[in-house]
Amino acid sequence: MLRALKMKEKRSPSQLEACWKEKDMISGRVSDAMVVIMRTNGCCWAKTGGCTMCGYRQASLTRVAADDLDKQIDEALSKYKGEPFVKIYTSGSFLDEDEIPPVIRERMFREFSGCERILFESRPEFVTPEVIRTLPKTATIALGLESSDPEVLKVSINKGFTQEDSRKAGLLIKEAGLKVRTYLLLKPPFLTESAAIDDTVRSAMFADGFSDEISINPLNVQRGTYAERLWRAGELRSPWLWSLTEVLRRLSGNVSARLMSSPSGGGTSRGVHNCGKCDSAVLDGIGRFSFSQDVKDLDAECGCIGSWQRYLESERILGTAADLDRRFGDDLALGSEKDGGIRH
Ligand SMILES: [Zn+2]
Hints:
With about 350 residues, the protein is of the alpha/beta class. The chain has one domain (about 1-300): Aldolase class I (TIM Barrel, Alpha-Beta Barrel), CATH 3.20.20. The protein is built from 13 helices and eight strands. The protein has helices at about 1-10, 55-60, 65-80, 100-110, 130, 150-155, 165-175, 195-205, 225-230, 240-250, 280-290, 305-320, 325; strands spanning about 20-25, 30-35, 85-90, 115-120, 140-145, 180-185, 215-220, 260. An eight-stranded mixed beta sheet has the order 1-2-3-4-5-6-7-8. Strand 3, helix 4 and strand 4 (about 115-120) form a beta-alpha-beta unit. Helix 8 packs parallel to helix 10 (about 240-250). The longest helix is centred in the middle third of the chain and has 15 residues, at about 195-205. The relative contact order is 0.09. Mean pLDDT is about 90; it is low at about 330-344. The protein binds zinc ion. The site of zinc ion has 6 residues, from loops.
């Protein structure tokens, strides 16, 4: 903890947390995008405890002034090469005035006014008609709905708002002619793998009513979170990649929003993973699907698909969301073919 605090102190409030280039989409075509991660005073919700899986409290600082934010914009501009899509993330909500003062927000919009698309994230309570009027027509607002199940939002995630709050915010944004990207969390704490798959499928159907894009984020165990405590105790396993492809398959053709997933920590024991041998091939397929929307891109083969199916079945029988391989190991006889060393 002390080490984490010391490391935090070393981070300069006037520098960006990170900045990189990647591909995304604008109106159905692949485009270059710049991603900017800003350092801010952090998520208002994280300060009161925050979400069970969110590491934003670790990422936030406490002394970021408007002047620092201006310098961070300067740094972003120095790296900008005219990408038509710019994505700005803070460690919380871009529309929270305590994180990003309106004057900084306005400068951002001015500097990137030549972009075809600008995306930022916000909790729904900051999405008001007054604020929406100040946003450019190129804006996409990312909403972290996570789940449409009130119990999951409250007990598993501790999200601090309801699915209805997200829906209202989404509809306000859509009415103003702006776009919505909704984030869903695949496998929050306490959900078995199969319950998690069902939950994300149901949540996507719910989100489809107010979303242009639905991005599925499989649980990635971040440092200093409640999810990490459960994970260390063997009470939680990040989802299988097969569960993610299952969700995408079930939704394909049943939602009008573009489906996408770009898992952080994919292929590691903290992130979404399979047996280790097939992870990068499956992740590549998910990446291709996110652009093509063609389920054929999700096709992959590996012996561990049988282990995944047995895992779902064993969890159902035992009625637990604990990591079965770690808690019960070979005693459970999860499969004759040992799945090539799941990386724990
Ligand atoms: Zn495999």
